[in-house]
Design goal:
The protein is α/β, with parallel strands linked by helices. It is 26% helix and 20% strand. The protein is built from 14 helices and 23 strands. Strand 13, helix 11 and strand 14 form a beta-alpha-beta unit. The protein starts with 20 loop residues before the first strand and ends with a strand. It holds the Pfam family GHL10. Keywords: Signal. InterPro entries: Divisome_Glycosyl_Hydrolase (IPR052177), GH (IPR017853), GHL10 (IPR003790). This is Family 10 glycosylhydrolase.
């Protein structure tokens, strides 16, 4: 077989953006060194790249996902992280949402907050031997072409299962007036400016120091109400139970200061405004620091009672958590919303498809809507899901043009392949990889064409990459007769192998495009053609 090599460079043209798929609108130009670019017939172009956000939450709180238990060695923690990332890559996921701040603590070295006890069993104690877990996760995720979104709990200061004493630099000791005891938890008071500033400073510190792809906050704003004196919390909210004699959050000092200063809002509206103020500032200041870092929020799945579709009922985060997610969407204070749609398809009072349509309908700014799925219900001791429940929910999301992906809670279920869920996903919905949908409101200039050379080597075509400064991943199409196959490679990979097929033989043609941190795609260029 005659060996052929191609090298490419140039300026990419703008691409049409939006929807689940993004197609190249201009035929790719292939350049053999020393020759004039030649057009490739449009009939020979590969299909559009599949686009879908496929992520899983990795919880550090209570050691739900990682590390599997406290006080593992640094090497054991790293081995578990690599196993999670390898499984995510094998499943054709494209992002991990890693909890980096479970309770006003950190899984990375911080001057603002102590090390988390979920790493070492003692708050304030670093992993041994010392390493930076967040940097490790980011490096290993990017090496596999996966995004890494840093997940922060905005206000929780101590979980009810915490066992070690608070470290000297924990906010409950450095600023006790900003922390309130609520049931078995400690909670940062959103009405205290110093508490909100602490959260914002922590988030921006991570954005500045780490090469993350996203900032993610969860559904814990004001705490889930508890019945005095029991602790029902968000489990009761998911079950749709109304609280009895709820214990009010003890924020009288900050409320009285607001009233004394001439504030005119009622208490519920004031609480919502406290949260809104943090959300708005977080969105603005994240993008002032790094425009490509997307900001995502995962609120409770039920919206405001006065806007709900007929037949939908249950817990009101608007009235109980003081979370006005509709306002965040409609003001464009986030880049993606992952509402926790944690109910089965058949549960009519919280119908998955109706709720998904509701959130899509609230999305007047055209941000991403990527619902959260309760995948960990599979194999659970009670309210057990069958894998088909999750398969169907993904299918419903795919049928909605306004929904471009989903997030699994949590990774532990996929690591255990409960009831064969991994097998069903890779045989169906995840049979091929997908690019993360683009975020054109943050920037829509395509990256330059990738620089690639290609040559036959044994039973494969070997691609050698020269990474561009803006590249995050490469999209690779290979054609075997009439069949196109799609792959995603990390921009840090020096080489990519396009193997011969056992049945169909060698690839007839290979195309490559560059994709930047915002999901913008260059033109696709032909880097190999079978002689």
């Amino acid at each position: 077989m005659k060996r052929r090599a191609f090298a490419f460079a140039g300026v990419a043209s703008a691409l049409a953006l939006g929807g689940l798929l993004a197609a190249c609108t201009t035929p790719p130009k292939a350049t053999v060194p020393g020759t004039v670019p030649a057009q490739v017939a449009s009939s020979e172009l590969p299909p559009p790249a599949p686009r879908e956000f496929r992520a899983a939450w990795v919880s550090t709180v209570a050691n739900i996902d990682w590390p599997s238990k406290q006080n593992l060695s640094a090497q054991q923690q790293q081995q578990e992280a690599i196993a999670i990332l390898d499984r995510a890559k094998a499943l054709n996921l494209n992002a991990i949402v890693l909890q980096v701040r479970p309770a006003a603590d950190a899984i990375y070295p911080s001057k603002l907050e102590p090390w988390s006890e979920y790493l070492t069993g003692a708050q304030g104690k670093a992993p041994q031997p010392w390493y930076d877990p967040l940097k490790f996760w980011i490096t290993e995720a990017h090496a596999r072409g996966l995004e890494l979104h840093a997940w922060f709990n905005p206000y929780r200061a101590r979980h009810n299962n915490a066992k070690s004493p608070a470290a000297p630099n924990h906010i409950s000791r450095t600023n006790p007036a900003a922390v309130k005891s609520y049931g078995k938890f400690l909670w940062m008071d959103p009405g205290e400016e110093s508490a909100s500033k602490q959260t914002l400073d922590v988030v921006l510190d991570v954005v500045k120091r780490y090469d993350i792809d996203g900032v993610h906050i969860d559904d814990y704003f004001y705490p889930y109400p508890i019945e005095a004196p029991s602790a029902a919390g968000n489990d009761a909210a998911l079950d749709g139970k109304a609280g009895k004699a709820e214990l009010d959050f003890p924020d009288q000092p900050s409320w009285q200061r607001y009233v004394a200063s001439g504030g005119k809002l009622d208490k519920a509206s004031w609480r919502r405004e406290n949260v809104n103020h943090l959300i708005e500032r977080m969105y603005k200041e994240i993008h002032e620091e790094k425009r490509w870092v997307r900001f995502g929020i995962s609120p409770f799945g039920l919206g405001r009672p006065d806007r709900r579709p007929p037949g939908i009922s249950g817990f009101s985060q608007y009235d109980k958590l003081y979370a006005d997610a509709e306002t965040w969407l409609q003001n464009g204070w986030l880049d993606y919303l992952s509402p926790q749609l944690y109910w089965p398809m058949s549960q009519t009072a919280q119908a998955y498809d109706v709720l998904l349509d509701y959130w899509i309908g609230q999305n007047t700014q055209g941000r991403h809507v990527w619902p959260g799925l309760f995948t960990s219900r599979i194999g659970a001791p009670s309210k057990d899901y069958q894998p088909q429940e999750i398969i169907q929910q993904i299918g419903v999301a795919r049928s909605r043009p306004g929904a471009g992906g989903h997030v699994h809670f949590s990774m532990v279920t996929l690591m255990e392949n409960r009831k064969g869920i991994d097998d069903q996903l890779t045989a169906g919905h995840y049979a091929q990889p997908a690019l993360v949908p683009a975020s054109p409101w943050l920037g829509n200039t395509p990256p330059a064409l990738p620089k690639v050379s290609a040559a036959r080597a044994g039973n494969a075509v070997k691609l050698k990459m020269v990474p561009g400064k803006a590249d995050a991943v490469y999209a690779v199409w290979s054609r075997y007769g009439s069949q196109w196959r799609f792959a995603v490679a990390s921009a840090g990979q020096a080489t990519v192998t396009v193997a011969d097929d056992a049945t169909l033989g060698q690839a007839d043609a290979v195309f490559v495009s560059a994709v930047d941190r915002l999901g913008n795609e260059s033109e696709r260029i032909q880097v190999w053609r079978k002689s």
